[in-house]
Amino acid sequence: MTTKEETDTIVYDEAHFIQMLKDNDTEVFRDAFLSLHSYDQAQFYEKVGPDIRKLMYAILSPKEMADLYEGLEVDDDEYESYLKEMNTTYGAEMLSHMYTDDAVDVLNELDNHQRESYLEMMDEEVAGEISELLGYAEDTAGSIMTTEYVAIPENSTVRSAMTILRKEAPNAETIYYVFVVDDVHRLTGVVSLRDLIIAEEETLIRDIMNERVVMVHVDDDQEAVAQIMKDYNFLATPVIDNKGKLLGIITVDDIIDVIDEEASEDYSKLAGISDMDKFDMNPLQSATKRLPWLVVLLFLGMLTANLMGQFEATLEKVALLAIFIPLIAGTSGNSGTQALAVAIRGIATGDLEKENKFKLLIREMFTGMIMGVVCGLIIIGIVYFWKGELLLGMLVGAAICCSIIVATLAGSFIPLLMHRLKIDPAVASGPFITTLNDITSILIYLGLATVFLSQIG
Amino acid sequence: MTTKEETDTIVYDEAHFIQMLKDNDTEVFRDAFLSLHSYDQAQFYEKVGPDIRKLMYAILSPKEMADLYEGLEVDDDEYESYLKEMNTTYGAEMLSHMYTDDAVDVLNELDNHQRESYLEMMDEEVAGEISELLGYAEDTAGSIMTTEYVAIPENSTVRSAMTILRKEAPNAETIYYVFVVDDVHRLTGVVSLRDLIIAEEETLIRDIMNERVVMVHVDDDQEAVAQIMKDYNFLATPVIDNKGKLLGIITVDDIIDVIDEEASEDYSKLAGISDMDKFDMNPLQSATKRLPWLVVLLFLGMLTANLMGQFEATLEKVALLAIFIPLIAGTSGNSGTQALAVAIRGIATGDLEKENKFKLLIREMFTGMIMGVVCGLIIIGIVYFWKGELLLGMLVGAAICCSIIVATLAGSFIPLLMHRLKIDPAVASGPFITTLNDITSILIYLGLATVFLSQIG
Question: Is Iron set as a keyword in this record (chains A, B) (predicted)?
Answer without folding.
Answer: no
